[in-house]
Amino acid sequence: MKLFISFASFARASAAFAASSLLSVSAQTTLAEAVRLAGEKYPGVQVSLEEVRTAAAGVQLARTQFLPRADFLAQVDRATHNNVFGMTMPNPVMPPISGPARVVNAGTNVWGTATGFLVSWEPFDFGVRDARVNAAAAGKTRAEAAVARTRFEVETAAADACLTILAADRAVASARAGVERAHSFEQVVTALAKSELRPGADAERAIAERALAEARLVQAEKAARIARSALVQLTGQPVTAIATPPAPPDSAASGTATHPLLVEQQAAIDESAARQKVLDKTWVPRFQLQSSLYARGSGVNPDFTSGGAAAGLGPNIYNWGIGFTMLFPLLDQPAIKAQKEAEASRARTEAVRLQKIRRDLTAEQEKAQAQLDAARRIAALTPAELNAARAAYEQAQARYRSGLANITEVADSQRLLVDAETDQALAQLGIWRGLLGVAAAQGDLGGFLTSAGGAKP
User: Fold this and answer.
1) Average pLDDT value for residue range 333-362
2) 51, 195, 348, 370: least buried by Cβ within 10 Å?
């Protein structure tokens, strides 16, 4: 999350916002309200919530493996009844046939029916099903952590977007004041030039300075429109103004929560460990307790004679049975071993990624604190900068009217005053952006939102 945008270059800040603002607001709103709406309405959060619901359904599916299985079959067919001795390997092509083998083939065919129930239950499994349930639950936990991480990133981007809009509006105001001063000075110089008290080149220079000031205003207005159009694109709602936050606190609030990125990554490690436990319990015998009740009907008799036209349309032979089956996949061990090695490699990868995230967050905290400290120092300097720029501008105008200075000195003082007014207007917002950067690196926006005039959503 790169939120550390320099207010000295507003155009770059606005472009960054256009690519990353993720908030939903309507009309005028506070920063805290914007953060709340973004966390609730942004589609990315909704997608993550649906993934949690999918994972929860997977947990329920894994739990159904503890239940017995019951199957019902009903079948009607008409076919020849030529049987042959011998074995065939299991295959999906040839249907099975029962009964004595005939000496010669015959084309006669009869009806056959079958219906029955089969109930199967695995009474014990050496913990395989329980391990699968735990793995599914670990996947759900990771999905929930992903929701928290996504919501945190969206809320952070929403707060950053609000500060960017405020910066855009203040930059526009400073640029508009510069245009008004340039226009007034142009009128003065034009009048002096017509009276031949100043050369005509001065009038042309004043026109050029006014045009430059207007171009600067156009750029500032464009940046403000980009910020708002990005919000309209994401929310479909117009944004007229963002409420100005109060004076920033003297120190950044300490984060009390574990960073959502760390929580999500730890959940990924736990999920991998749960899958490894499933593989550890996979190569075991499987036991099935089965009970079957079925009936069959056939239109052919044991002496190879057939009954009437409707013979075999109804079951006439009934059977039942109870059995206990054991199945052990002897040759699955190599495949399971390969799966274990792959899962162990994924677990090591997730562990290394956790270390990387910790280092990155530590670096982000240091960078954010450095930006905050610099923003406070700059804010302490801007009043003196603005006062000096105003005095220089007034003196340059007075010197020009009295013929002691040329128009270049006045133009330079005008630009210096616009820069000083912009720096002064953005100084407090620079501190707020630094506070946001610290809170984002710590993984807790609660203190930041409280200081900005609202509670954490």
Assistant:
1) 92
2) 195
